[in-house]
Write a structure and sequence with these properties.
Rossmann fold; 5 helices; 18% strand; binds magnesium ion; seven-stranded mixed β-sheet; 31% helix; binds guanosine-5'-diphosphate; alpha/beta
């Protein structure tokens, strides 16, 4: 999967303000400061596309970017940034949960976890929520340049050991570093595979609907997420 064009499309405060669902979407979610915007820029191959901030809690909007004029990368607001002492702000916001539960063109979520930290309760809680709500996701351990490889490996193994009992088949995971330039091909591969599956499904549906043209009444197609194999 090559990226030939990457453009900012819009910032939406909630699901209703998001653009139409005509393009497949791949969304980044994770704690504030985990490296969502940096990873988006790294995958897109454009340093200044999404705004990177050393200050946590910066992005409050759903930011949409169109790649190759055919699919979107979505930078979701981060969770886990406690503003003041309000406990509620630890939780991810309504716009994010609505988007994740109801966006029909959402193909995959990349759930970002900092490889430099031991398993954090809020990340475990969030992944459990994703699994319970049947949101299709893969895990991406970020910032592998920050620690010695052995420390990152230890944190990753501990995290996967904690979540594995929740699944028949544990979710796929990847590692990346936007700073060291590691992990881009594998993540673009995930998107490429999903896009191939969607194209194949669309072709099949087109062929099927052509063979139905003799029928006088055609039913409107039922909107659903692409039937991709889920990681659990
Ligand atoms: N060492 C290291 N720092 C990173 C990496 N990715 C992002 N950062 C830094 O982490 C901070 C938060 O990054 P950002 O992409 O804005 O995170 P977001 O809040 O999840 O969107 C910034 O200071 C980035 O420079 C990485 O791969 N390695
Ligand atoms: Mg960001």
């Amino acid at each position: 999967m090559d990226i030939s064009s990457a453009t900012f499309e819009c910032s939406a405060p909630d699901l209703d303000s998001c653009p139409d669902e005509s393009m497949p979407e791949f969304a980044f979610i994770g704690r504030s400061n985990v490296g969502k915007s940096s990873l988006l820029n790294f995958l897109a191959g454009e340093a200044g596309l999404a705004r990177v901030s050393p200050k946590p809690g910066f992005t409050k909007l759903i930011n949409m970017f169109v790649m190759n004029q055919s699919w979107r990368l979505v930078d979701l607001p981060g969770y886990g940034f406690a503003e003041g002492s309000r406990k509620d702000s630890r939780r991810f916001n309504n716009a994010v949960s609505n988007y994740l539960k109801n966006r029909t063109n959402l193909c995959h979520v990349f759930a970002l976890i900092d490889s430099g930290l031991t398993p954090q309760e809020i990340d475990l809680e969030f992944l459990e929520w994703l699994a319970r709500n049947e949101v299709p996701f893969v895990i991406v351990f970020t910032k592998t340049d920050k620690n010695l490889p052995i420390e990152a490996e230890k944190n990753i193994a501990a995290f996967m050991a904690q979540i594995s009992p929740w699944f028949v088949q544990p979710p796929a995971y990847f590692t990346c570093s936007a700073v060291a330039g590691q992990g881009r091909a594998a993540l673009l591969g995930v998107i490429g595979e999903a896009m191939d599956a969607i194209t194949a499904e669309a072709k099949k549906n087109n062929a099927a609907s052509e063979s139905l043209t003799t029928l006088s009444q055609k039913k409107a197609p039922h909107k659903k997420r692409p039937d991709l194999e889920r990681p659990w």
